[in-house]
Amino acid sequence: MILKRILLRIWKLLPNSLGLRRLLVWLVSQKFLVGIVGIVLNENDEILLLEHSYRKEYPWGLPGGWLTKGEQPMSALNREIREETGYGIDIIRPVEQYADQSYARLDLIYLCRIRGGTFTPSDEIISAAFYPEDDLPRLIPHQILLIHAALEK
User: What is the CATH number that goes with domain 33-152?
Assistant: First the structure.
């Protein structure tokens, strides 16, 4: 409460400079990442999963990534999936927002349909495969919940 009062006084004393005020807001605001995740289905309603090169405990997972400054979530998801896999997608609808309890991150999850393309491995992604909902590999537990939530609606 005391810090808030001090910051308010500083704010009032600042010249009417948008840049200076933005800097002050940035300095005192909590920092966190915004991620986007796709639950991508093929024509058989199987789920696209990617084998990540940097994950040891849970190598398989849903495609996704981080938003960049000024980027819209659906554009970011299209970009990330294209970069990670070579596939094009159509976004069907938002599924959920997931706030990570142990990390300063908010994920926006979308249900998608594969539109085409050819898988190309990258430094991040070793392989890609489509799995039926009842035969998923070992995934990060919250991703299993997200898949079930997306396919129930």
Answer: 3.90.79.10
